[in-house]
């Protein structure tokens, strides 16, 4: 799922962006989550790095899009940013805040779809972390997307994937640090789960791939919040 923020004071324009996202994902709302903001102030006040991409209107009353973008970069240097504008002269702006480009209003589906493909590539790169494992003199590289969960037993850490398990001498702390930029959260003191692979939470168990893992009392609330942020965004 991709999480999207639309920051636009014009309700009709925000609705059009929403419609294009829905069309791009073939009306499958399980593939995206959208949160809309009518002004930059409310967006920034509620921001906590919960989005993959932001469609930001340039020409808004009060705090305009460029000021919002400048302040946004102080909070999040990595989120994908796309400007939307009705004014052609604004089209060349955005480099100082690392925007990947602009879309001219009224938005057209073809350029929007091209931009979405680029966005998806960037989001995938951002979420993916390569884990390097040294096992019996061999070096193995695991993509974080392929890791379903990580568990530790004493000083042995096991990375579970759909293709098998990989064991190394390490600690859960080191595994947590190496996967900090990916979508992982602890379900107990001994296990990290990949939110991308979570199928359900049933009572005090989380179903990851085909595995049922126990959730400790201390980790349940943070895990549920992490899942809510991942699947639905906030705001």
TrEMBL record:
All copies of domain HTH LytTR-type, residue ranges: 131-229
Keyword DNA-binding carried by entry: yes
Alphabetized InterPro entries for the sequence: CheY-like_superfamily, LytR-like, LytTR_DNA-bd_dom, Sig_transdc_resp-reg_receiver
In-chain residues carrying the UniProt-annotated modification 4-aspartylphosphate: 57
One of the Pfam families matching this protein, by short name: Response_reg
GO MF term (any one): phosphorelay response regulator activity
Boundaries of every Response regulatory domain copy: 3-120
SUPFAM superfamilies: CheY-like (SSF52172)
Record keyword Phosphoprotein present: yes
Keywords: DNA-binding, Phosphoprotein
Protein name: DNA-binding response regulator
Originating organism: Bifidobacterium lemurum
